[in-house]
Design a protein that fits this description.
The chain is an alpha+beta fold. The protein has eight helices and five strands. Strands 1-3-5-4-2 form a five-stranded antiparallel β-sheet, sandwiched between helices.
């Protein structure tokens, strides 16, 4: 069973607020299970606008949205998610410190996962997403996350895999399209799981 860590860049306050509303469940997604639940592991202490530098490039990345999870089989095995959730939260706090703006746990969709919003802000106050999302740093995140999950039965995905991630927004779009075509969530989950095992869709 493998660790999953995906991310996407956010360049506008409007996009950030929409993603935050989805993750905090201020906006309820249609595919959410009403019997499931969600938990705020870290709520924002200040509005996003108040922590961004006034002077920044128009195309500057203002935040990074990260989705962390594990192979579906890990959760299907009936394993308590408390240890995984606690380890993931600790990893995020240690890795990003005060740049970690908000974090949410979701158990109301097909596979439990965590959304984290990171502000790519340097100590001098400048935004610099390249310091957070360069290839070397992404590999380090994968290594450090797998290390944080030691003892849970979750391992790192294949190092050096050439398979590409599906961005967070595209991921939900794939789900919606599948449902429109009459594919059930159970069938879709099986298809995704098979593709993961065959192609190792991880960094």
């Amino acid at each position: 069973m493998k660790a999953v860590l995906r991310m996407q860049k956010i360049k506008s306050v409007g996009d950030y607020k929409r993603s935050s509303a989805h993750s905090s469940r201020r906006t309820k997604p249609e595919n959410a299970n009403p019997k499931g639940f969600h938990v705020a592991l870290k709520e924002p202490q200040k509005p996003i606008e108040s922590i961004l530098p006034e002077k920044r490039r128009k195309d500057a990345v203002i935040a990074i949205e990260m989705v962390l999870s594990a192979s579906p089989d890990y959760f299907k095995a009936g394993i308590d998610t408390i240890k995984w959730t606690s380890r993931t939260k600790s990893f995020l706090e240690k890795e990003f410190g005060e740049n970690l703006h908000e974090v949410y746990f979701h158990d109301d969709e097909q596979t439990p996962h965590i959304h984290a919003f990171i502000i790519p802000k340097l100590k001098d106050g400048r935004l610099c997403a390249k310091e957070f999302t360069n290839r070397k740093q992404l590999v380090k995140w994968q290594d450090d996350y797998a290390k944080a999950l030691e003892g849970t039965g979750i391992q790192r995905g294949l190092r050096g895999s050439k398979a590409k991630h599906t961005e967070v927004t595209k991921y939900y779009g794939v789900i919606a399209k599948a449902l429109d075509n009459g594919i059930s969530l159970e069938e879709l989950d099986g298809m995704i799981e098979e593709k993961i095992e065959n192609n190792r869709l991880r960094v």
